[in-house]
Amino acid sequence: SYVLRHARSRNYVSESEVCKLESVPLDFGDYHPLKPITVTESKTKKMNRKGSTSSTSSSSSSSMMDPLSSVLDGTDPLSLFAAAADPVTAAPATDGARRKRDKDESSAVGSDFEPWSSKRGEILARYTTTEKLSIVSGGFHRKATTAGSAVSEKVRTRLEELDDLEEGSQKELLNLTQQDYMNRIEELNQSLKDAWSSDQKVKALKIVIQCSKLLSDTTVIQFYPSKFVLITDILDTFGKLVYERILSMCVDNRVSLPDNFSPESVNDTAKETCLNWFFKIASIRELIPRFYVEAAILKCNKFLSKTGISECLPRLTSMIRGIGDPLVAVYARAYLCRVGMEVAPQLKESLNKNFFDFLLTFKQIHGDTVQNQLVVQCVEIPLYLTLYSPAIDWILQCIAYHAPDILLTEMMERCKKLGNNALLLNSVMSAFRAEFIAARSMDFIGMIKECDESGFPKHLLFRSLGLNLALADPPENDRLQILNEAWKVITKLKNPQDYINCAEVWVEYTCRHFTKREVNTVLADVIKHMTPDRAFEDAYPQLQSIIQKVITYIYDFALLFSVEKFLPFLDMFQKESVRVEVCKCIMESFIKHQQESTKDPVILNALLHICKTMHDSVNALTLEDEKRMLAALINGFIKMVSFGRDFEQQLSFYVEARSMFCNLEPVLVQLIHSVNQLAMETRRVMKGNHSRKTAAFVRACVAFCFITIPSLSSIFTRLNLYLHSGQVALANQCLSQGKA
């Protein structure tokens, strides 16, 4: 007899838990096996440091010096390979905590705050020059040192290097073009990273000092805003490298600091290194490099004390008072605001003090010193004043961020009391909330009227006001008066480019709040200004923007085409590629917003003309995707045309469309389907019993298909349409046509 054996029941999950290897959580922090290790004695607080710039790691597990690392001065051959990597890009994979901290700090201000990075490209593109530039280049060479050099020798070498910086080891590169200058700045940025990664911290500091000194040079004044952007990129890199360096020294037992660490949790080595950096910077003789380099590492105050940043900001703000050139000073204030918003956005008092200091020195802009400098450089006052805009806009944006209306009103009143305040007024309108500006539109118009025309151009002020009114609505009773006051100034502009830049902004305001009569008046004025000397050829982007705004707000096409000047406005688009783009925009809007079919002759004639323009742009080089898009827009229009029970008129429209759109096969296919549908609709109306008239009409429909199908190139499309059309013919008792 057989004994039935059953497998014993097992709990695989619990067995797996028991048998698997024990997992130990590891956080390597800044640990890397190739990094140099210096084993220090834990019984004493005196650090055996080889200079503040060497990599150190404290360990209390041993009280004796490692004989190998002491011979190699803390640098073994393998670690040299690791040091060659860029410290910015070669961070360990386990450095997630640091990345998270950076992300949290960068998001201390909300997403509604426009970051500096978004303004950077615009400044570089706007402030250019064709004049020759010069740059002072330091002799940044690395002196060869032996591996076992003594501490005193290292210190002496570094002091000599810093002295070299002051004693003129630099050479001046002259006659550089703007692109050469930008390339040279980029080389310095890369040199900074290379010097840092090769543990040459003094050289890195020299590069940053050298770059900061360039910000005191205003010999090519119209390029200064772009120079500021390029050099502060280097300062930002330096500040990040120093902060990451000190942060890496705070790693204890491979555990990095928490995100919101306190100075008490920072070890003595990191604090000493941090202080050493501040002492080095404090010894820089010149004010401008000392200010910029200290501002760049402002964030490092977090390692020393809780109140470090709040104490430094007012001191740095006061330091700017020592900068004599008002343009250099205002950009220094902008940089301090930028750094302040990154590291301590809650300290708004210092930002406000910074701006009020600027207001006190505002009259310097119109002083004799500046006037003499402008005469030498042949720069006009209006152009000079626009150089201030990026800096003042940024300062005011930082101050206005989540600021109460009381503060904004106070600042507006202070600006109003100053003479020649058009520059400030423009920045206020650029930086303050659109709702705040819109609610006080008439006050701003009054201030704009009082501005001196010889200084900051008034049309730029009205453009800034118009940009705000496009985002927020002014009081209803003031709307017409605002438009009249603005257009009085805009229509008097002689320069077509200045005119169209303003008109483009105010068209949106007109479309939002007024009827087709006012829109027609504005379009007529634009045509009047842009037609002479074919000025429209240089303003296609602005003219396209105007069309886009008009069809955004007036999407009833019966109303749109009743605007008398709309079609003449389209005639200004003479360049074919631009004209086709505009036509596509109009057709997309029609298909999107037209809810019901139409037979309005005005709409049909206008849109047929627009579709014809799109069709005629097709040639042998047109891409298939482009053809498909144009065909889809034209088909969308054809489907929306309906003459109701007037079937003969409908067929006439399809015949006309076939003659106009013969180069786009998808349109011909759509027309064949539409005509077949028309024949079946006739059969449905007649309930299958055709009269002589309807029988002739149906035969005409079948003949349309019979003639059109052979012109198609796709065999299978032709086959399907023949089958479909034959069935329609037979259903309508057109036997001979169906057989054919």
Automatic annotation (TrEMBL):
Question: Quick one: where is this thing mainly located?
Answer: other
The entry's localization annotation reads: Endosome
Give the keywords, sorted.
Answer: Coiled coil, Endosome, Protein transport, Transport
Output one GO BP term.
Answer: endocytic recycling
Q: Which family does it belong to?
A: Belongs to the VPS35L family.
Q: Which PANTHER family match?
A: ESOPHAGEAL CANCER ASSOCIATED PROTEIN, VPS35 ENDOSOMAL PROTEIN-SORTING FACTOR-LIKE
Q: Give the protein's recorded name.
A: VPS35 endosomal protein-sorting factor-like
Query: Which species does this protein come from?
Result: Callaeas wilsoni
